[in-house]
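<derive_structure_tokens>
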Amino acid sequence: MTLGPNLQAATADHLDLLTPTDRAWISEISADHVLDPGRPTGAALASMNRRQRERFRIGRTRFLRTMPLLETPVVTDVMGRLRLLAHSSVRSDLHQQDIPILNGDPGVGKTHIVRTHAAEEMSRLALHRSIDLEDGNADPLVVFRPVLYIHLRGPMTRHDLLRLLCAELRWPSDRNPQVAFETAIKKCGVQLIIIDEIQHVNFDGKTGRDVHNIIRWMSNYGLRVILAGTDIDWVLNGAGSAAVEVAARNSRGRWIRVDVPKLEIGTTAQRDAWLDLVYAFENRLRLAHAPSEDGWLSDGFGMYMWARTQGYLNALVLLINLASAHAIDTGQETINRKILDSIDLEYEVERQRTQRVALFDNGIRPEAARR
């Protein structure tokens, strides 16, 4: 994958304005520290002792698992919309910010998208701060943390959310977390907050009303906010008290819905994009006995993989990762249909697997491509 323009633009000098934590985040997202271990030969593997084989296994597993975000049509559309909103924003509490909310089923890749956008924005905003410093317009800061990403893992109240944000900044939240957070964002130069798995908030009660209101306060304060989650219709339209409905109505007037669908193969272009995605993973496999022909995985098993995963990105990643691990564990050092059939995926995509694969094997291709 070619890195986004914002990652390319920031030089090492600009990135030095960021904390080591944020620089490590960018490095992890871009995978620029992950070395290609190379494609082994059977003889080379046979000559390795146990320690050498395990070292090589770690290297090729990491190389496969740390693939940067791939530019599928869905990713191109969603990232393009996020970049457009970013490039049109101004850091000022006189200008309220509209709030994109990424909506999609579990497993479509929302988290990878927003984490990658966070890395791009860290780099872009570091470049902006370097320009402000050069021009003498930069506010003094305790530390520069332009982007905060938090992943909700359970029910959250308004104060829980604010304390979590303060903790991400390593800022004491004391008895009044909102006042503490106001101080923290000023002293840390926060400009973008990304809240993942927003559906964990109980939006049909007082907590939901309070969270609606605190997110609106953030945007009124000049902060950019990006939300991501599932079942966004419930978040914005779920039943509740009159006060909850007023808060939800305010959010509906500010939040911009960005749907993140699974990958389809209903048209020739969609099918080609899916096979290109499988091919990208093929190019990261480092198996000694894999066929040397270009496209052996994508052309040979790409459509089968769609029948198995139904186009869910996370399921495809799991299928290929586990198949590779199986090939290494058994010494086969290649991926074949028998190995792929042995891999169990997430419950949701395994439902009706037998029927789908039977149709595939009978020559009835899933969603036969049309122009």
In short: The chain has two domains: 73-259, 264-361.
